[in-house]
Structures are given as C-alpha cells and as structure tokens.
Amino acid sequence: MSQGKETTVLLLSLLVTAGIAGGGYWFFSQQKSAIVPATTTPDSSPQVTIGTATPAPTSANLNLDTSLPNPNILEIDGSTAMVTIVKALRNDFSQVNPNIPTTYGIPDGNPNGSNKGLKNLIDGSVAIAATSRPLKAAEAQAGIQLIPIAKDAIAVVVGINNPFKGNLTKDQIRDIYLGKVTNWSQVGGTNQPIRVINRAVASGTRVAFQDIILLGQEFSPDGPNFITWKQDETTAILRDIGDNGISYATVSQVEKQEIVRIIAIDGVLPTDVNAVKAGKYPISRSLFLGVKKITSPVSKQFIEFALSPQGQQIVQKLGFIPVQ
C-alpha cells in the first residue's frame, strides 16, 4: 500500500476510535448521573434545640398539656445517680433561659433519690423528677410521663485491696445478695466473709439492681455482714466497703475512684460502652426525666434541651450513653 493510502487509513481509524470513545463517555455519564450511592442517604432523624428547631421524636410524642404557667423557679428532684447530668443540663439551660432559675433537690443541692423525687413530683413540690427507674403502677396512674434521656450501666465494686481478683457471674451476684453465698471462697476467693452493702430503700439504682439481678426477689435481711445503707448516697458506701465488702453503683460514680475496683460480670465490664450498647453487659438501664402530663412550657423545654444535640453531648461527656 502507498504511503498516501496508509496515511488516509490511519486517519480514518483514529476518527472512528474517537467517535466510539466519545459516544461511550456520553452514555456512561448519563447513566452515572442517575445513580444515587447508598451511602449518601441522609439521616432522617430530626434534631432538637431550644427555640424553633424540630423536636426529637421522643419529645414530639410527649402529648403534654403545657397550659400551666411557668414557675418562678423550675424545681427538680430525684436520682442521686443523675446528679452530674442534671447539674450540667441546668448550667447550660440557664444560658438559654436566664429568667427562670433551676434547683435540684429539696433543699437545693440535696437530691432525695428516685422514689422521693417522683413522690415530690406527684404532690406538686417539684415540676420535674429525675429517676433511674421506670414508673410503678400507682405513679403511672397519677399522670406521670417519663422520657428517657440517657442510658447507664450499674457497676459491682469491691475494695481496691480485696484479695478477690476474678470476675463474677450474674448468678453468683444474685446468690450473694440473696444471702446464699456468704464467703469469698465460694466464688474463687480467699476464706473470708463477704460483707454486703446494699443501697438505701429510696434508691432507684437499688430498684433496678433488684429487678435485673434478683429478678424481683427480696434482698437478704440485714445482719452482721449484710447492711442496708440508710441514705441514698455512694461516696460513704465506697469509703466503708473495706477489704471484704461488695456493693454497686452507677458506673460513672465509681469508674475513676481509687478506693474500689469494678468487677466484670460474665466477663464484661460496664466501662465497655460498646458492650453496654449491644446489651452484652447484664446490668444496664435507662435514665429518665419525668413530668406531669399537664405541665408548664419551661418544663417541656428543659426536657427538649436534654434531648437536643447539646444536651446529648453533655450526657456523653459525663460517661453516660446518649439516647439520640
């Protein structure tokens, strides 16, 4: 073939190739524009803040009548396990609603536990109750509504110098608190009596522990090595636990304490947030704010604030698990 013909053929080949490539690019680009990657689906969960933002689902389903006038002081009482959460929420809420101060406890600074907090809500002494347990039937019939704002784990603890270094099963802990196991040697420890310190009757943490661990059975009666604490408090219990004692508290109250050691239950620690979220740790619970179904606008706003991104960030920073 002559050089001129070869040149002509080569040019035609290039033109055909370019045409095919161009057509292929056009077809691909049209198809690609119709594809929506699965990972780009937006999160449809609404967020909530004080003001005009869309309320979170839990808040939107409150069905509260907010026809009561706002109080001069927003009074709250309840769980000692929720002291840090409520304090932080109050501090930040006051920046949004500076005209309505808040208190926690009667008197302020002395929360009376979940049971008393709910009683004070029912009789009108406070506008909001913080509780670490669900409602009893009579409380629900009194027109109280609970809104979960966080999730928490209950830790079982022994003294830092306790010779027992193992972990316990849920059944072993049940038998200890039923009075069936009374010596550390029965669970793999040294031969010394187990000194059980139970939380006060007013404690919501006690109620949750009894429901989950004892399956609703009654605790062992008090005796030389079984003590029911009189006040709903944690620090005093930890100081009294000694080298052979055992007790329990919300994990955020004990995980940074140097005088006690947290015991793994069925091989899982309550400080493992992922395990708690997945339900692998056996003693976990929800934490609630409760109001009457007929309440004030500011009471509902406080709960909405607790469920807002800012409120849930507070929950997480304090070592609890957010619900939103």
In short:
With 324 residues, the chain is α/β, with parallel strands linked by helices. The chain is built from 12 helices and 10 strands.
What does this structure look like?
By secondary structure, the protein is an alpha/beta fold. The protein has two domains: 133 residues, Periplasmic binding protein-like II (D-Maltodextrin-Binding Protein, domain 2, 3-Layer(aba) Sandwich); 125 residues, D-Maltodextrin-Binding Protein, domain 2. Helix content is 36%, strand content 17%. The chain has twelve helices and ten strands. Strands 1, 2, 3, 4, 5, 6, 7, 8, 9 and 10 form a ten-stranded mixed β-sheet that branches. Strand 1, helix 3 and strand 2 form a beta-alpha-beta unit. The chain is elongated. The relative contact order is 0.19. The N terminus is likely disordered.
